Amino acid sequence: MKTHLLIRAKVSCEHFTRAAGGIPSVNREIFLLYLIKIGIAMLEIKFIRQNLSMVQEALSLRRQQASLDAFMTHEEERRLTLTQIETLRHRRNKVSETIATMKKSGREPLELVEEMRGVSAKIKDLEKALSENEEALFEILLSIPNIPHPSVPAGKDSNDNPVRKEVGEVPRFSFSPKAHWDLGESLGILDFERAARITGSRFPLYFGAGARLERALINFMLDIHTQESGYQEVLPPFIVNRRSMTHTGQLPKFEEDLFALKGWDYFLVPTAEVPVTNIHQGEVLEEEALPIRYTAYTPCFRSEAGSYGKDTRGLIRQHQFNKVELVWFSAPETSYEALETLLADAEKILKRLELPYRVVTLCTGDLGFSAAKTYDIEVWMPAQGVYREISSCSNFEDFQARRADIRFKRKGKKGTELVHTLNGSGLAVGRTVAAILENNQQADGSVIIPEALRPYMGGLEAIRP
RNA sequence: GGAGAGAUGGCCGAGUUGGUCGAAGGCGCUCGCCUGCUAAGCGAGUAUAUUCCGAAAGGGGUAUCCCGGGUUCGAAUCCCGGUCUCUCCGCCA
Q1: Residue range A195-204, pLDDT digits in tens
Q2: CA–C1' gap, A217 and B25, in angstroms
Q3: Phi and psi dihedrals of A154, rounded to 5?
Q4: Mean pLDDT computed over A132-155
Q5: What's the sign of the alpha-carbon dihedral A109, A114, A117, A119?
Q6: How many CB atoms are located within 10 Å of the residue A167 CB?
């Protein structure tokens, strides 16, 4: 982490070129991606121009289709037009001043006014060209993903995610454990068939102790985060506008994953990350206020486009699910410590619920669009005999902050800096219900309520058929 | 849904007969001084982005007074559209 801060702080282009040649091959990919980050994401265009081929190579390593040629064409044009405009505007400003003083002294500056008429028309033309040009440029910029932190392992998909640790005892059953959807239906607490009639597939319908379990978990999680871990609770809008979605990176690239509201240009939130991170969009925060830490419950709505046939049964992959989220606004130099704390805060919930889980570090190929580094927490699901993601904790560094314009001011220093944003599930509630059902099931079909949760369940110790 | 008011710097708040307004004043903040005792006094400084010159200190350009258009040689100021906020009426969980 030290190195990357150093790298980013200030290094000459020659330094980069030299270093890139001499680094070990495993890190080379990440290193090159880092070049893009400081280059494109930070709008350090000069660097790209001087190291075009290397940047191009780095892009292709992330299997990016984005064309740097197009980017460069637009960028060259932009700089050219901008220079012309600024020169003309300078002239106009100067002459306007002259006109003002001349008029004051009673003279009519007819020729000057005539000249300025032409200048203004020219400026208008150029401005139109510029805005078209910038639109194209901006679109490309918004489609370029964040660059992984150097500590992120290289890999191509989830099979390459190294396991960081395993926690808890995987339960042994003297019978063959049932899937949570079977348990849920036989206990009368889950009804996917009726939910499908109400809406369609992949919507949840809870009854009785099941509905209460879901509600209990939400309260339990929020209480732990606020009372023990020091987060501030927020209850944000569940519908957000296009701008907010762009700030956190869901748009423009992933619109098909979202539910949009007809006629509104509004979207149902796919995660509380979107409304909560956007709380501070466009703000300059005080250094002493950092880190700002929020926890929020929201339902989450995802179209799950492209996941047909995957996890078709049960609570694992729903169009609507509940989640308690943790969101940080951190100073850059402490954001990776923050990520560890965030992860621990999420893990705490699983420990209290006595659910076995493991933590994996996402490799470069599995990393989400906006994230620089992500840990997934995966809970053990006995019926399928696999670990399933129940939380995802990420550091976005300044990627979202740049898009959302969230900055902070250091005491006694001039200027502002972008904050780092982080977030993680703490936890996905539906999947937690599924995990409790499967891990705590008994031979007679009943399910034991984790002790920590019983106060939230009116003292109920088990859900029985 | 109907009627009206408003949107200015980190915050509050002037400025609307168009022209040295990037914007008075205050608060806050930074530095220095004084006093001496816990709360004040004095002085100086203090927007952001981007670009250029410079080793740096610093200096120059451009943009930004909600957003987008328009009028004009010139717009925080005038006109049109939009967004948001507030007040009153109606309706509603």
Answers
A1: 999 999 999 9
A2: 54
A3: -75, 145
A4: 79
A5: negative
A6: 14
Residue A412 CA distance to nucleotide B34 C1' (Å): 23
Tell me the three state secondary structure of residue A352. Answer: helix
Active site residue A392: yes
Q: What is the DSSP letter of A237?
A: -
Structure tokens given for A52:
């075009």
Rounded Cα gap, residues A62 and A64, in angstroms: 5
pTM of the model: 0.85
Name the nt closest to A131 by C-alpha to C1'.
B68
| Catalytic residue of the set A75, A330, A431, A438 | A431
**CA A320 to each of CA A198, A204, A268, A300, A349: distance values in angstroms, whole numbers, following the listed order:** 13, 7, 10, 5, 22
Question: What is the ipTM for the molecules in this complex?
Answer: 0.84
Instruction: Check pLDDT > 70 for residue A208.
Output: yes
What is the spatial distance between Cα A191 and Cα A204, in angstroms, rounded to a whole number?
A: 7
d(CA A435, CA A419): 35
Active-site hit among A134, A185, A389, A417: A389
Q: Is A117 considered catalytic here? A: no
A105 is a catalytic site residue: no
Does the pLDDT value for residue A85 go beyond 60?
Answer: yes
Catalytic residue selected from A92, A243, A317, A352: A317
Which amino acid appears at position A464 of this protein?
R
Q: Tell me how far CA of residue A112 lies from CA of A105, A109, A241, A398, in angstroms.
A: 15, 5, 47, 48
pLDDT at A140: 76
